[in-house]
Structures are given as structure tokens and as C-alpha cells.
Specification:
2 copies of one chain form a homodimer.
Chain A: H1 2-14, H2 21-30, E1 36-37, H3 39-48, H4 55-67, E2 72-74, E3 82-84, E4 90-95, E5 101-105, E6 110-112, E7 121-134
Parallel strand pairs in A: 4-7
Antiparallel strand pairs in A: 1-3, 2-3, 4-5
Helix pairs in contact in A: 3-4
The structure holds a DNA duplex.
Chain lengths: 137, 137
DNA sequence: ATATGTGCAAATCCTTTGCATAGAA
DNA sequence: TTCTATGCAAAGGATTTGCACATAT
């Protein structure tokens, strides 16, 4: 546990994030294993563990982690923000019936982007969401 | 104008949408030419034209159109819902600095999906957002 | 008549913000 | 001290909802 905490602390510092008590609690919960979380889930899991972190700090922290590259904010749900602790290149598959979200390895999908981007721009990322539904009987 | 309205009315009916006065106004504004709109934009353009449609009806109508396949709801902006009146297969490119959203023809991007979808599911769609930023100088 | 659609305002949900307090350097 | 982070409650913005009224079949 101490080793884990040291490791997490190091990751925060490597990303320029001061390792406060609250941030360490959230990081321990969210950064591993790789997973998809919402702010509300983080809040609920913290209080389930008896760790008291304010809602404002949860939002601040998730946004900070995303800005510093510890998390990736996903655009898959119009109703709320999802954060992905797998920051390696990959895509997502979502069940439209359940909202369930699973990773798709980037090498499972071959993408050949447009041959040219607009003048004066460079690629900043690509997001792919494959939506599936229960197969009609 | 009468021809247009007849055409739009026919499209609504073909999608199982009863062509009420408000829905025709919104459809005339939104369905062509192909474009990306938010509820707020529709509301603003309606009042700019002196057409009075309530906010609730605008939201109801856009959601109804999306449910019936007259519009596609996009997942590109965590802050508000965008609707795309181009329902043909295509993808999007978004400038992260400005939020500007442009279409990418589906044949400009080659995608080879995962060879197998999960048991009992079928494809419901795929959304691709290529994000670009101003090139570093 | 009976179904459905509309409008208004209030309610709801997610997220951010203002500000006073707590904590670390 | 001085700077930053935290917590709380309130504010904010987008969207939905409840319900009375209007409309169309």
C-alpha cells in the first residue's frame, strides 16, 4: 500500500500535480486499474470508503488530471462527463441500450485519416465510438 | 416556398412525425441545408424570423427528429447537444480552439472495424471526431 | 370528443464559482 | 507569511417536466 502510494505520488508529480491528500485518494481510486468513471461515481466510491472529499474538489481534481494528461475526458455521453484512466491510444465501444462502455484496442481498428488537414492545423487527437445494440431477434 | 413546404412535410410524414406548424418551422430551418445546430441556435433563429416557438417545443422537436432519424445527435461538446441534419454516413473534424465543427466525408477516412462485435450485438453506428488545433509556430 | 402537441414556468441535473478556511512551503 | 488547495453553499446553464390550454382528427 505504501509502495502503491509512492508510485501514485510519483505519477502525480511527473505530471506537475501537487500530491495533496485528496488528490492522492482520488488518484488511488481512479488511476488504476484502467477504468471509466464519472464525477458522481468517484464521489460515491470515496464516501463508501469513508473518505470525505468535497464535490468541488472531485470536479476540480478530475479536470486537473485530465488537463495534465493523467486522465482523458471522453465525449460519449451527452448527460455527463466520463474520464478514462487509460490514456494510451484506443477507442471505445458503447452499448446504446445500457450505456456500457468498453475499450477497443487501437490496433483492432484500422483508420486512415484524411490525407490533408486544414491549412495551419495539426492533429490533436481522434475519438472513435462504435455503438452497438442488442441484436434484433 | 409552397413546394419546399410540401417536401418538408413529406419528409416528416415519411419518418412518422406529425407535421404541426411548429415542427414545420423548425424543420424548414434545420433540415436544409445540412448543418450543425444547437437548441439555442434554433430558438434564436426562430425569433429572428419572428416565428414564436417555445423553448420546450424546440427541445421536444429536436429530440423527436433525432429519434425518428431526421437528425443525428452528435457527441462532440460536453456543454450542449449538437444536431446534424446530414444523416448520411460521415464523420467530423473539430477545432479544439474554436469548437468549429466541419464534416469529413466518410470516404476520406478508411475504417476497418473490429472483426467481431460482442455476442448478441449488432452495429448501431460509429462516430469519429478528428480533433485538430492551430499548428504550433 | 379524443388524441396529441404546445407553452410557460418551475424543477432537475451536472458542473462551476465565490469566498472563507485550512494547509503546505 | 504567502501561495495554493479545500469545502460549502450558491450560482449557472442546459434540458426536462407538470399541467393547463390549444389544436387537429
Amino acid at each position: 500500500m505504501a509502495a502503491d502510494e509512492e508510485c501514485i505520488r510519483a505519477r502525480l508529480e511527473a505530471h506537475g500535480v501537487a500530491p495533496t491528500a485528496q488528490r492522492l485518494k482520488i488518484a488511488a481510486l481512479v488511476l488504476e486499474p484502467a477504468q471509466h468513471v464519472t464525477a458522481e461515481q468517484v464521489l460515491a466510491r470515496l464516501s463508501a470508503r469513508g473518505e470525505r472529499v468535497s464535490k468541488a474538489t472531485v470536479y476540480n481534481t478530475l479536470n486537473l488530471f485530465a488537463a495534465r494528461g493523467l486522465l482523458r475526458e471522453l465525449c460519449v455521453d451527452p448527460a455527463r462527463a466520463w474520464f478514462d484512466s487509460n490514456t494510451a491510444p484506443h477507442f471505445h465501444m458503447q452499448h446504446v441500450d445500457t450505456g456500457e462502455l468498453v475499450d477497443v484496442a487501437s490496433d483492432a481498428v484500422a483508420v486512415t485519416g484524411p490525407s490533408q488537414l486544414p491549412e495551419g492545423t495539426e492533429a490533436a487527437g481522434i475519438e472513435i465510438v462504435i455503438r452497438v445494440r442488442r441484436k434484433a431477434p
